[in-house]
Amino acid sequence: MDFSRLPSLAAFAHIAQHGSFTKAAAEMGVSRAALSQSLKALEEQLNVKLIYRTTREMSLTEEGQRLFDQLRPALGAIEQAVRDVGETNAAPSGLLRVNTSRIAARNLLEPHLSEFFSRFPQLKLELVMDDGLSNIIAEGCDAGIRMGESLAAHVVAMPISPMLEMAVVASPQYFERHGVPATPADLATHDCVAYRHTSSGAIFRWEFSSPEAKGHSFVVEPQGTLITNDDDSMIRAALQGAGLVQHVDIAVRRELADGLLIRVLREWCKPFAGFYLYVPTRERMPPKVRVLMDFLVEKRELLPAPGQEPSNHPMRKSRQRSLASSRSNRI
Fold first, then answer.
1. pTM above the 0.85 mark?
2. Residues 191/185/195/112 CA torsion (nearest 10 deg)
């Protein structure tokens, strides 16, 4: 290809797009005479008439229309490529709206907000708290965070947490008073704090899988004296000894590490896909979304996978021994 023709081809495309030498010249910042001379030189190089023109009007010839139809997408692609390079080099800025569940916000975003803003001082972050699966385009959001199992197959998603598990927990004081359930069937005799979904109004049923290699999965309807639609309230109730709670393990890891809560029925809770950052499309991803994705993927490496949570806290070890003694006495 003769790249020296590119300016003349671009000039011709401007004339054809506007249907006017005057408008095209004004947009390009050149004189009408210079634009006319550029077109004349292109026609001579190609040995073809591209535009019929009189003192009052102009129109494309058949060859001119064919050339314009082929140039338009090619020049658009060049313009987008230049824009993409500029966005890559520019510092991320503007408002970044993220639709997220409360659990993900508390455990994946909020602990790192100070570092995120120090890295990207020109960004503003708006967290849209929504525990239901939202259409981020309709909500005007740039990205969303949800569990992998709830995402549609067509969305573009990146894991930002390790595999997770549902954890059944209660305080040591609760187990001292009521004993330790050995199987999910034993929950029928325990006080279980229930969670009601705000969106559907349904009670969340506790999920389990049989410990056998090909064990079946099943659910248990929690029965107890407390129902709440706030998961923080559910954890606070467990800390007070009000009953057993089933929650995503990432939400109670600190309490487990500190020995404030103790986990049971671990072998009945299988790992599942964790949280994902999802976006409408991978094409022309804005720099502000890209840096958030890269940042959360980086922080994912700091989170322990199932079975790797801290276990060296002295208080936890002591209480685990007490729990083990309680379990052996019941057996």
1. no
2. 100
